[in-house]
């Protein structure tokens, strides 16, 4: 599944190269229920053609009507949807009952706009995340290096600018196939992750039937060592087979993956930790990167419940939340 942000940026670049002006819209914040999260993108032309989304449809309809009326021609603007008492913006009540703040940036078909979007495109296709700093008064944009974790949008009170995180699509590498791995793959796809499964065992691959997953018939450690992990990658080993799980952990800690975890009880995890120190040569800093036992302590028993606990913990780390904050 192609990263939706990349679809938006690719289309924006195509229209700019045709000499068309475009409007890049970003969800800045949501309050209450909302179908799209902060950081979601939409790009539109003056005639109403668009790619991406900001909501379930009602916001887009109003925005495009106002765009055709020439309301967003003068520099960057912010709008609030869903707040009938708000001092500005359209007084539209969202069916979900939420409130939505949107940043609207008009982009001219010039070298500066092309360069700006080409940086975003390269970041989405690459392995190193960036943060896009947008001055809300002038529309001036700067890029800075970023760790890739934390909220997709951060507004700086009093500074008059927003920080928008840009990075490659989140990736989940499943080191080996098991019933829990099947359920994890399904959950991860629903959450927007690119899912890759590695398992050299033919009989295990034959029983795996999750559509849309990339499958490699090699040891996970071999695939991980090939450079498959970027900063938006999670690596999880869920087979209970140390020949697969341990080697995957040894290679994963050498990568920038934001989450590394392996399944097992506390007793099994203690034995694995000893093996990884003794045979794998991992130091304490490397050991600290490995979540074992993996996942949140939900009292999970079934494969689906364990997969839920694993994916919930991955999302927690991805969003920069501590366990204590839950």
Automatic annotation (TrEMBL):
It comes from the Bacteria. Residues 172-314 form the XdhC Rossmann domain. Residues 15-82 form the XdhC- CoxI domain. This is Xanthine dehydrogenase accessory factor. It comes from Halomonas daqiaonensis.
């Amino acid at each position: 599944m192609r990263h939706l942000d990349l679809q938006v940026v690719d289309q924006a670049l195509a229209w700019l190269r045709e000499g068309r002006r475009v409007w890049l819209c970003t969800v800045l914040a949501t309050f209450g229920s909302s179908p799209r999260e902060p950081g979601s993108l939409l790009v539109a032309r003056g005639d109403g053609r668009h790619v991406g989304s900001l909501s379930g449809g009602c916001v887009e309809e109003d925005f495009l009507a106002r765009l055709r009326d020439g309301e967003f021609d003068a520099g960057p603007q912010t709008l609030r949807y869903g707040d009938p008492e708000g001092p500005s913006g359209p007084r539209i009540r969202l069916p979900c009952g939420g409130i939505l703040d949107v940043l609207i940036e008009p982009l001219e078909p010039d070298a500066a706009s092309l360069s700006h979007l080409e940086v975003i495109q390269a970041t989405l296709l690459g392995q190193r995340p960036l943060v896009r700093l947008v001055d809300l008064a002038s529309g001036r944009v700067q890029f800075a290096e970023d760790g890739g974790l934390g909220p997709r949008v951060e507004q700086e009170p009093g500074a008059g600018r927003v920080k928008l995180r840009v990075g490659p699509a989140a990736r989940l590498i499943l080191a080996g196939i098991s019933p829990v791995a099947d359920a994890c793959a399904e959950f991860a796809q629903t959450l927007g992750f690119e899912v890759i499964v590695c398992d050299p065992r033919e009989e295990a691959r034959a029983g795996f039937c999750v559509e849309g997953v990339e499958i490699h018939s090699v040891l996970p450690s071999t695939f991980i060592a090939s450079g498959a992990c970027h900063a938006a990658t999670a690596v999880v080993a869920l087979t209970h087979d140390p020949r697969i799980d341990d080697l995957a952990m040894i290679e994963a800690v050498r990568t920038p993956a934001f989450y590394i975890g392996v399944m097992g009880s506390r007793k099994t995890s203690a034995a694995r930790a000893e093996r990884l120190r003794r045979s794998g040569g991992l130091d304490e800093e490397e050991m600290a990167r490995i979540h074992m036992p993996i996942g949140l302590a939900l009292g999970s028993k079934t494969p689906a419940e364990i997969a839920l606990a694993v994916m919930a913990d991955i999302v927690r780390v991805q969003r920069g939340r501590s366990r204590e904050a839950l």
